[in-house]
Design brief:
It is built from 2 helices and 3 strands. It is of the alpha+beta class and about 110 residues long. The protein has one domain. The chain has a 3-stranded antiparallel β-sheet. A hairpin with a 5-residue loop joins β2 and β3 (about 35).
């Protein structure tokens, strides 16, 4: 981020809070527009649900003092892996050899010799 961008943010916005990933949330003083400055790569899926609601004006109260305790059944956050080597690919995908098990609904091509 450039020096001028940081200066503009300092002068025209109010910092509302920071989430558990280090993303910082701001609100413009003039027009109440809300925005986030991501820590690291700009990945919108890194915005937690409670901050997502505030960002999209679902709620006007910022989740500054929200308990971020995770239950044992909750998974840790993973960024969007689409387009990376870690992206999900089902069995039979070209990344897994391109072969899958036969199923009853597989297409059988017509053979004129049968």
């Amino acid at each position: 981020m450039s020096f001028l961008t940081k200066l503009k943010i300092k002068l025209q916005s109010v910092k509302i809070g920071t989430d558990e990933f280090g993303n910082e949330y701001f609100e413009n003083k003039k027009n109440s527009k809300r925005f986030v400055i991501y820590k690291g790569i700009a990945e919108p899926s890194k915005i937690p649900a409670h901050w997502h609601g505030w960002m999209h004006y679902t709620t006007n109260s910022a989740p500054v003092n929200v308990d971020t305790h995770k239950h044992a059944w909750q998974k840790i956050h993973l960024p969007n892996l689409t387009g990376t080597k870690n992206a999900y690919a089902p069995k039979g995908h070209l990344n897994h050899g391109g072969k899958r098990e036969k199923v009853s609904s597989d297409y059988q091509s017509w053979n004129p010799n049968n």
